[in-house]
Specification:
Number of domains: 1
Order of helices and strands: HEEHHEHHH
Strand order of the largest sheet: 1-2-3
Number of helices: 6
Strand content: 5-15%
CATH topology: Arc Repressor Mutant, subunit A
Distance between the termini: 59 Å
Number of strands: 3
Helix content: 40-55%
Largest sheet: 3 strands, mixed
CATH class: Mainly Alpha
Length: 144
Amino acid sequence: MCAYKRKTWIEKRDISNELKVEVIDKDFADMKKGEKMLVATPLIVDEYIRHIPKGKEGSLAQMRKDLAAEYHADKTCPITSGIFVRIVAEAAYEEYEKGKAISKIAPFWRIINEKSPAAKKLTFGTDFLLEQRRKEKLDKPTVK
């Protein structure tokens, strides 16, 4: 019998990984061979999201550009960036469920909208996400 205990999202976010900047040896996603690629960490992504001002919307693409510039890379890995945004969202929601105030959790709803690939994967669904986006007026009315 396996005694493996699954990590919580908070544990996955708070893992003490080091960021890496690597020169890639072949074209990958939107990156070309020879470019420097940043592989951030969940905590770096958490910190980035916490700096998105209330009522403002960020994007994964902009986060990737900003982090690459901050850490002297050409681009940020698109795969790990998406994974880390989800980890931050799940960890924030875990904290919220444990009683942490909304103002003290990472405001992931400022970077994930209902059309984001990450939104479809959230274990807690999208109701909380949509509610927080409505409260901050992040959803723009559709113009017909």
